[in-house]
Design a protein that fits this description.
The protein is of the alpha/beta class. The chain is built from 12 helices and 14 strands. About 30% of the residues lie in helices and about 20% in strands.
Length: about 400
Amino acid sequence: MQEFFTPIDTSHFNGATKYATTSYGKLINAYLQGGDFPSLENIQLAIVGVEEDRKGLNNEGCGLAADYVRENLYKLFQGNYQIKIADLGNIKKGDSIDDSYFAVTDVLAQLLQKNIIPIVIGGSQDLTYCNYLAYQKMEQTINIVAIDSSFDIGEGEKKLDSQSYLSKIILHKPNILFNFSNVGYQSYFVDQNSVELMDKLFFDTHRLGKIRKNMESVEPILRNADLVSFDVSAIRQSDAPGNGNASPNGFYGEEACQITRYAGMSDKLTSIGFYEINPAFDTNKQTAHLVAQMIWYFIDGFYNRKQDYPIVDKSEYTKYRVSIKDHEHEIVFYKSNKSDRWWMDVPYPVNHQIKFERHHMVPCSYSDYETACSDELPDNWWQTYQKLG
């Protein structure tokens, strides 16, 4: 693994010689210039910078982002927990873009097999495709959540880039994608044909305005994710100017931090990537600083995981049964006595039991239970039921 990485040069980091003893700069086991590559023994989270940005449309230079984010991340203090984090340095650009893709896929696959959660700092968002490919050896279908102002589905057989990676994921064989969710799309950036395609695939799409009216509604979506891809252009330009495709509307910085904390708290999530951060457009390193805080919130969420996913033992849950449409459907809900979080059980054919075992217990909210009590099928129950069938 080490052969893919270049060490981190902190000589240009502001304040690098004065890190407090409880700051990340002192506590993260980093691959520093002149030092050894970190041991991965007992490591829970691994930071991976990626310099590849050749397919970052309108955003050349985002491959330089990782060190700018680190400069701010290392100044932050750990919370009320003991972190076990390694920073592996930066995956250098390959001679060809395919070399870079191979390196990223191989590194992330190795980390996943060691049950270490990669925190990827890109680079362009087409690297999400590499992250997806890293799950192939796990022999399980996965859910992807993208925080993005558009769907990045591209057009037809368009080559892989930062705005078409999703189509490559959908068309890839073998297909290990069970569900894709977009959080924060803005309608004027999305072609109606793409909206119709997402509906046909039973994928979840959530408009920015709808999510911002109730930020807590994003928690069940992220609780169901294996992989999260965060495009910084989903954040409004005033809060995150460091992006060639930044626009006036989007999430506020504190909302972005709330989203990443929810991602960290997801017992199911095993990788996350932050993409399209471009120092060339940044003002006073504002975007790099924000992403550093977003990563801090992700880490904080991780160390506050509840470990209450009701896959086997359901004795610690309150069970509710709701009949829908004159007993045509019965929905079984589970509420965790530990965290007050909700799930609903979606039935699936017996012959699909092994393949879809991880997906029939769907995270939801109390409002989904209220919807069922009003004799209506919750949208995410129906979408999952369609896919399981």
